[in-house]
Amino acid sequence: MALDVDQPLFVISVAAEIAEMHPQTLRQYDRLGLVKPSRAPGRARRYSQRDIEKLQQIQVLSQQGVSLEGIRRILQLENQVAALQARIAELSGELEEARERAEESSRIFAAGAGGDVVRMARGSRPRRRQVSQAVVLYRPPFRQEG
Fold it and tell me: Contact, 48 vs 5, CB < 8 A?
């Protein structure tokens, strides 16, 4: 069974140890809205694996000299990008379904040369049935009556 990355499992001390931060730093990030852990009964913070990954990302950005306000904005923009990508995927699926329905509804069928049903492209005609011509072996002479 795979671990749900959004399942709030870790108390603040364990999350801080995994993220290699001080618990007070996690509290500060919570107050600033950088990471929003779940709350257990009694208001105790519970961090998920995704929260810890975000904490590690914040730590890297901070070490690169990005301010906390800059980090907040980066995280906000990343969330917007992820939401837009999900919406694009959703709309692409709807577009594909609409195209399939349109293609299905615009199909044209005709009787084929052998009497079978064939699918035709819009604006085309079925091939003509080739009629074999019998060879006339005997032809009576032409007589003019007069």
Answer: yes
Rounded Cα gap, residues 80 and 70, in angstroms: 15
Give the 3-state secondary structure of residue 33: coil
CA distance 84 to 88: 6
CA angle 9/13/17 to nearest 5° reads: 95
Cα 116 to Cα 51, 104, 109, 119: the distances in Å are 63, 19, 10, 10
Instruction: State the Cα–Cα distance between residues 99 and 136, nearest whole angstrom.
Output: 54
Could you read off the pLDDT of 57-83 as tens digits, one per residue? 999 999 999 999 999 999 999 999 999
User: What is each CA distance from 134 to 113, 137, 138, 141, in whole angstroms?
Assistant: 19, 9, 12, 19
Alpha helices in 1-141 (DSSP H): 12-19, 23-32, 49-63, 68-105
Overall pTM surpassing 0.70 (yes/no): no
